[in-house]
Write a structure and sequence with these properties.
Elements lengths: L21 H7 L3 H4 L1 H10 L2 E6 L5 H10 L7 E6 L2 H15 L7 E5 L2 E2 L7 E5 H10 L6 E6 L7 H16 L5 E6 L4 H7 L4 E5 L6 E5 L7 H15 L4 E5 L3 H17 L8 E7 L5 H4 L10 E7 L12 E6 L2 E8 L4 E8 L2 H9 L7 E5 L3 H6 L14 H9 L34 H7 L5 H14 L5 H7 L4 H20 L14 H11 L3 E4 L5 E3 L5 E4 L12 E9 L3 E9 L1 H7 L1 H7 L3
Parallel strand pairs: 1-7, 1-8, 2-5, 2-6, 3-5, 6-7, 9-16, 10-12, 10-13, 11-12, 13-16, 15-20, 19-21
Antiparallel strand pairs: 3-4, 14-15, 17-18, 17-20, 18-19, 20-21
The protein binds cytidine-5'-diphosphate and magnesium ion.
Protein name: RNA helicase
Pfam families: DEAD, Helicase_C, OB_NTP_bind
Enzyme class: hydrolase
């Protein structure tokens, strides 16, 4: 929030972060962790592994690394992991403001492709995936005296892999170092027993009363119900912002747009005339993420449409009302079917309680659950850890890179079921944000991978100074393209190191080698067209349709491979490539001679 308008987009770290005002700094000291400061520090210093449990918003993430820095660990490096990039960036920015330094000074963040930390940086917020990658070069993470694994209750795959790694480190590292696990739920007992000798400390949260309202009947569309409820709150309820939980970017963008039009016609209660909609989800650029933390302009009320990222990872001040759709988008792996599913599923009771809690941080609040009380009673009590439900291919590769050859013997908090350590399933990074219009212009009949490649080639063929403009003209996200470009460069470097020729790389005149490569990587996701126009996954017999976002939607390829299966109203294959059936037997004979009838 520098006074000068930046001429072009700058990294957050280039901006000097203005220190918070005195009054705000004093307010920080009212956070519940401040009361527990001494006990927290003692707990960490006197145990190698210390688990801190405290309600979301009590100050764990922003204050505890600071406490440590102000203690005898002042000269040491402290690292704090977050399950998502948004949280790493937002929390580092906040702490830099509290400490009056710029990002990359005393406080910094590092996420994939964006590392603001320097040799000065003592408090580093990183994604847990990034720390796992650092561990490839430095398996004992020697440079850190304190390693904080935050949001341990989220049990993401990376967090779980990291915990296993830390346990190994605990055995092997002989110098003084401390592991701190922070969690918003009492599941903490489980990690405490995972690490020998771990202690648990509780931070008593401050929670105001939250009234919970259920719908009388089950709702047909949670999106319609969410919009109606938000508008009703705006027109009937006292001052305070609204936090509404949806499942993903498309829904969030759609509702933000609807509120812009419908919200303008809805008169607010108590003089709050305008309703301002803001979005927060993981893929949102950092500059836009920052908007959710800005107070609504005077005379208006803010509604934040969020994914489950706002459940625990981010605390947004000012929220008095929560709208809970009761659903979340979750990745899961069907071991038997051999496919990854990205599906909208009911949340757990623990998640519903977390969501409600967000309304009572600063004052009494209200939660509107868009489901019936009977439906709530039927929810699972807690969410299944990711490690028990996803395809472990990427994590297995990462652990192998760390020199752990027998994954089955690796110590996980929850041991994954053996069949989930299936065959390694290659996957292409896919850029999601290319707009539909551009997709049509760059459309290649071979499908989405080749289309994406055509976009990248056109981008690279554009002069460096003109690329920003090119992206705008073609409705393509410049940020996504830059990321794509960096991955492309990274892969080129790897290929060069392996002395593989680059000249034929992604030749759009001759797409066959690429199509064949995709068959080799994605053969478990190969499907053939049936007479009714749907496709059947060859290995499993599962029925799928081509996702409407695909450039192949509406065309009739005989045989396809695809990146992932998404379940919404039906099973959809997303990111699809047209292939020849004969390639399957030619390239993966051991698998397909079994499955394709001759
Ligand atoms: O980690 P925990 O959920 O216990 O709390 P925290 O993330 O450290 O947040 C403590 C307080 O700092 C929140 O209640 C917010 O008021 C404030 N905060 C903020 O204003 N902006 C951020 N990016 C992070 C925290
Ligand atoms: Mg936190």
């Amino acid at each position: 929030m520098s006074n000068n308008q930046p001429a072009k987009r700058r990294r957050l770290s280039d901006e000097s972060v203005p220190r918070l005002r005195e009054a705000e700094l004093r307010k920080i000291q009212d956070l519940p962790v401040w009361e527990a400061r001494k006990a927290v520090l003692e707990g960490i210093c006197s145990n190698q592994v210390y688990v801190i449990v405290g309600e979301t918003g009590s100050g764990k993430t922003t204050q505890i690394p600071k406490f440590l820095h102000q203690s005898r660990f002042g000269k040491s490096k402290i690292i704090c992991t977050q399950p998502r990039r948004v949280a790493a960036i937002a929390n580092a920015t906040r702490v830099a403001k509290e400490m009056g330094c710029k990002l990359g000074g005393l406080v910094g963040y590092a996420v994939r492709f964006d590392d603001t930390s320097t040799h000065e940086t003592k408090i580093r917020y990183v994604t847990d995936g990034l720390l796992l990658r650092e561990a490839v070069a430095d398996p004992l993470l020697q440079q850190y005296k304190v390693i904080i694994v935050d949001e341990a209750h989220e049990r993401t795959l990376d967090t779980d892999a990291l915990l296993g790694l830390l346990k190994r480190m605990q055995r092997l590292r002989k110098d003084e170092f401390h592991i701190v696990l922070m969690s918003a739920t009492l599941d903490a007992g489980k990690y405490a027993s995972f690490f020998p000798g771990a202690e648990i400390g509780l931070v008593q949260g401050r929670q105001h009363k939250v009234d919970v309202m259920y719908t009388k009947q089950a709702q047909e569309s949670y999106l319609d119900a969410a919009l109606t409820t938000v508008l009703q709150i705006h027109s009937k309820e006292a001052a305070g912002d609204i936090l509404a939980f949806l499942t993903g970017q498309e829904e969030i963008d759609a509702l933000c747009n609807l509120v812009k039009t419908r919200g303008a016609q809805t008169k607010g209660a108590h003089g709050q005339e305008k309703l301002q909609a803001v979005a927060i989800y993981a893929a949102l650029p950092a500059e836009q993420q920052a908007q959710v933390f800005h107070p609504a302009p005077p005379g208006s009320r803010k509604v934040i449409f969020a994914t489950n990222i706002a459940e625990t990872a981010l605390t947004i001040p000012g929220v008095r009302y929560v709208v809970d759709t009761g659903v979340v988008k979750q990745r899961s792996y069907q071991t038997g079917a051999g496919v990854d599913l990205l599906a909208v599923v009911p949340i757990s009771k623990a998640q519903a309680r977390q969501r409600s809690g967000r309304a009572g941080r600063e004052a009494p609040g209200k939660t509107f659950r868009l489901y019936t009380e009977a439906e709530f009673e039927k929810l699972e009590s807690s969410t299944t850890p990711e490690i028990l439900r996803v395809n472990l291919a990427a994590a297995v590769l990462q652990l192998k890179a760390l020199g752990i050859s027998d994954i089955r013997a690796f110590d996980f908090v929850d041991q994954p079921p053996l069949p989930a350590l299936v065959f390694v399933n290659g996957r292409t990074e896919q850029q999601k944000q290319a707009a539909t219009q551009a997709k049509q212009r760059f459309r290649r009949p071979q499908g989405d991978h080749l289309t994406a490649l055509a976009v990248l080639r056109a981008f690279l063929a554009t002069g460096k100074g003109k690329r920003g403009e090119w992206c705008v003209q073609n409705c393509i996200s410049g940020r996504a393209m830059q990321r794509c470009h960096r991955i492309f460069q990274q892969l080129c470097t790897l290929l060069q190191a392996m002395k593989l020729p680059l000249e034929r790389l992604g030749d759009t005149q001759d797409p066959e080698p690429l199509q064949r490569a995709l068959v080799c990587g994605l053969f478990l996701h190969a499907a053939c067209r049936q007479s009714d126009g749907t496709f059947k996954v060859i290995g499993t017999g599962q029925e799928v349709s081509i996702h409407p976002s695909s450039v192949l939607s509406g065309s009739k390829p005989e045989c396809i491979v695809f990146n992932e299966l998404v379940f919404t109203r039906r099973n959809y294959a997303r990111t699809v490539c047209n292939i020849q059936m004969s390639w399957l037997i030619e390239l993966v004979p051991t698998y397909f001679t079994k499955h394709i009838p001759r």
